[in-house]
Amino acid sequence: MSKQILFLLEDNADEQQADKMSAYMQNRFVFAGVPKPKLKELIKPYLAKTAKEQLDWQFVFELWDAEYREAQYVALEYLQKHHKQLKPSDLDHLKRLITTKSWWETVDSIDAFVGEILLQDTNLKDEILKWAVNENLWLRRTAIDCQQKYKEKTDQELLERVIVANLNSEEFFINKAIGWSLRDYSKVNPDWVREFVERHGEQMAPLSIKEATKLIEK
Fold this sequence. Notes:
Elements: H1 2-11, H2 15-24, H3 36-49, H4 57-64, H5 69-81, H6 91-98, H7 104-120, H8 125-131, H9 137-145, H10 156-164, H11 172-186, H12 190-200, H13 206-212
């Protein structure tokens, strides 16, 4: 089915739109020029056919290796449709996606899948801690953000350790992730986030502090 998807992208290619989409992503990727709303409509019947099928990682990787950036977006839509099938053994597959053709718009979708797997098997916590100090910044960002949807289920110890491992960073995407993860947790535990910022504020980037305290009453 991956070939059908690629033919679909080519049939709906728009060079002018592709240039705009590529420029928005700092010309890091080649686009066919199919905006996301239209892309979702185009692929809806294809994904519907897979609803009762097992998650097919070969299909995902074929799309991930394709030239057009929209193919990676289709892969993520497919994973979202099959996310309930994700299991701990799929973590390495997600790691491959995180570290290949990496940029914020794909990584920030994958981190939720990583979070779902982590809830299934807390023994994977050690692997996430390794990601938090990996030389690949997108693995570090995922380690920081993978609990964003956890709310009351957040592992405070893990959250603190992955963030502390990345303090004093000058990397925008890391500092933003730190702020976002703390801001989301402040929705359910503002006192913990406030106390964290008080303890580590001198090592935190202003951007991280700004995002972390955005929802906390002064």
